[in-house]
Amino acid sequence: MITYSTQFPVDHLYTKDIFVDMVIRWNQGSKYDKFDSLEWDKKTYQLSWEEPRKKLSINDYEGLGVVASRFWKEDEHGVWRTDFILNYARNYLTIRVTLETTEFTTDFYPSYYPPFFVKKVIYEGYAGEDCGLPIANSPFRITEETKKYVVDLLNKKTELSLPVVIVTRTSEGIMPIELNDLAFRLQGVAHVLEEGSDGLFADLQFSEEDRRPGKIYLIFPNKNMRVRTMNLNGEKAENPDLIISRIVNEIYGYTNQVMRLDVDTWEGIQNENLHQQNISLMSDQKAIEEENAELYEVFEKQLKKTEESNEQLNRQVQKLTAENQALRMKLASLDKVPALYLGEERDFYSGEIREIILEILSEYQRNYLANTRRDHIIKDLIENNEYEKLPAKRREQIKKILKGYRTLTRSLKSELEALGFEISDDGKHYKWSYYGDHRYVETVSKTSSDGRAGMNMAAAIDNLMF
């Protein structure tokens, strides 16, 4: 799973020498991850140190204009990979922390705080500006000179690298949450803007919504995402820490899902560097012909290494995507006061119960009068919960795989098992149980000549299980 991911501009004075020196100081300042001996003669940028259960590598790729660091370690939580990548050709820094669980992993729930390395970059003055907003660990106050800039932010007219959180004052003229705490938690991943005591925000006009006291706006760089709002009804929040946690989870939930270019990831850089080596091998046809046997052997090894690397990357991407999806579903309700409490039933797959409830609410809303209290409550619940429409997707999957059913083939069995079915072939008929629960069992003929049998089975499964 990805526990931290960000990318932000840095000052042009932040050279690769300073970067490498900062990585080494970062490690040497660690209480638990410090290497006993970590020396750098400043003559090479291809560095590696290794001790039991941990390794630090730093490599410079001049052809790509990047220097990359990876710290790998294994502990009781699993395998950690911490990547710092400086693009000194374009002056920006990419940071990513991932955790791969193992069979020895104990219960782990990520708490979202910036790594100490990010704090060092900001504290030592090497962080840059993001479209005029400084990368900082403190809130940025809205003034007469900057209020037009805020309007452009709200109307998605400004190109940003990081999300923005705008906090307005309550009707009593106070801040509903502690902004310094919020800015500290979000340093390096988002900007925090505060309305000044002169109430300038009240005069702003923008297209998203009318201004209300004590309102919090979450603006994301992705222009397809709507501006998220938290309306505190003009009063100081009863639980400010809870509000801060909700904001932090929203921001990190977004940044941890942002796709990065190959040149901004450790694996992508290795692959791109390998690709350039392959191009170099192919560039001189005459040399290839003269040293045919030797070069083809080298080239064959390079290609094999490329294929293995790509295969490993694809597996890693799929695994991280699945883990991140499960984490995002879990975080959707984390640190929020639940509208409902779970009973004895438990999810068969991640988010199942919440998805079914949201689908029921969505169907109910379509059949109820618009602009009524019930309509507004249901709409609010749907808008403020991640709704992936997973039951509908499963419904379509089961229809697709059972269309034209004649008998249970190996591939069909594999697809059904992927959906959570356990299949027993004792007796004259199959028994398909949903996640092994005896309450949800469909009896299926081993062979069928009825062309509509598959659709009838899909309908029965839908009614009983989805």
Report the order of strands and helices. EHEEEEEHEEEHEHEEEHHHHHHHHEEEH
Query: What gap, in angstroms, lies between the N and C termini?
Result: 28 Å
Number of strands: 16
The profile of the biggest β sheet is: 6 strands, antiparallel
Q: Could you say how many structural domains there are in total?
A: 4
Structural class per helix/strand content? alpha+beta
Using the coordinates above, name the CATH class of the largest domain. Answer: Alpha Beta
In one word, what is the shape?
A: globular
Unreliable stretches (pLDDT < 50, length at least 5) are 205-209
Please tell me the CATH architecture of the largest domain by its name.
3-Layer(aba) Sandwich
Helical content class: 25-40%
Strand order of the largest sheet: 1-6-5-4-3-2
Task: Assess the beta-strand content as a share of residues.
Answer: 15-25%
Assembly level = single chain
**Per CATH, what is the topology of the largest domain?**
Glutaredoxin
* CATH homologous superfamily classification of the largest domain: Glutaredoxin
In DSSP terms, counting alpha (H) and pi (I) runs of 4 or more, how many helices?
13
Average pLDDT value? 82
Which radius of gyration do the C-alpha atoms yield?
27 Å
